[in-house]
Amino acid sequence: MSSALRFTGATLELPDLTTGTSDGSTVGSSATATSATETIGTSAAETTGISAKDVDSVALRPKRSVLPLARIGRVAWRIGKPSIVIAAFLGLWEAAPRLGLVDEIFLPPFSAVVQAGIELTRNGQMWDNVSTSLARSLIGFAISLIAAIPVGVAIAWYRPVAEFLSPILELFRNTAALALLPVFILILGIGETSKIALVVYAGFFPILLNTISGVRTVDPLLVKSAVSLGFSPLRLFQKVILPAAVPSIFTGIRMAASGSILVLIAAEMFGARAGLGYLITAAQQNFQIPDMYAGIVAIALVGLAYNGVLVAIERRLSRWRTN
């Protein structure tokens, strides 16, 4: 019998090595093949410096997928990227006055602004002004929301209503809210009514226009399917039209929220005794520059809070949508 090893492609073929022993027992080819395999593995391990035990442990170790790690990395980058940009901006704000790049009197370091904001919060001025501005903006924003969505749906769905209201709406839509501030003050006075009315005016048109666009762009097949299923007009609006128009409507709501805050701040700079706009103007007139910047930062934080709440509501109302 030949004891040579013959390789065919990548397969190791062992010939029949069954032989007799002195006591009459036989050794099968399988045992010889196993011995040869172990000899080859041992030789390879000795050549590479890796023990057979290490080879077995590596072979038996389950492979870990790199997909979860990559996904975690992408999520961490998405979360960390805005933080990195904001931190860089605040670091530049802190360093520029201290390095003499700008005049520290007119742009104090960010740490000085934070200290001024803490002091305003401690003596109650910050909360009084923030709460006053929030009350005015929420009341005006709620009124504009309640008025704009039904009018927008009516204009988008009923042609006679659109033909009747479109000319007057186009006239006022192209008139800036701040341009009408003196008119509101003359007609409604210098108190709360004129400021809330200005917020209503500023928030009405973004919500109205986006509601019209959202209703008009609903897939006609959805409407026909609902009608064929016997939906009443009220149920059609409730189950088909409004859910499909939610993304467009909330785009207008978010635009209205940011615009109404800006208009309110401008209105509070004239004839107001409280509010963030009043705080900024009073600090500027008294040359309390850190307090002025603290008021500006407070406005930014209020705007971020508004947007965060609206985004959360939109996601909850749009859970039916596929991502």
Number of strands: 4
The average pLDDT value, as a whole number, equals: 75
The portion of residues assigned to helices is over 70%
Task: Give the N-to-C terminal Cα separation.
Answer: 70 Å
Largest sheet: 2 strands, antiparallel
**If helices are DSSP runs of H or I spanning 4 or more residues, what is the number of helices?**
12
The parts where pLDDT drops under 50 for at least 5 residues are 1-48, 52-56
Structural class: mainly alpha
Rg from Cα: 37 Å
In what range is the share of β-strand residues?
under 5%
| Shape assignment | globular
Describe this structure in words.
The chain is mostly helical and 323 residues long. Helix content is 74%, strand content 3%. The strands form 2 sheets. The chain has a two-stranded antiparallel ribbon. Strands 3-4 form a two-stranded antiparallel sheet. α5 runs antiparallel to α10, α7 crosses α8 (192-216) and α11 (276-285) runs antiparallel to α12 (289-317).
Helix-strand layout with pairing:
Blueprint: E1 6-8, E2 11-13, E3 19-20, E4 26-27, H1 29-48, H2 52-60, H3 67-98, H4 110-122, H5 125-157, H6 159-173, H7 181-188, H8 192-216, H9 220-228, H10 233-268, H11 276-285, H12 289-317
Antiparallel strand pairs: 1-2, 3-4
Q: What distinguishing features does this structure have?
A:
about 325 residues, mainly alpha, about 75% helix, 4 strands, disordered N terminus, about 5% strand
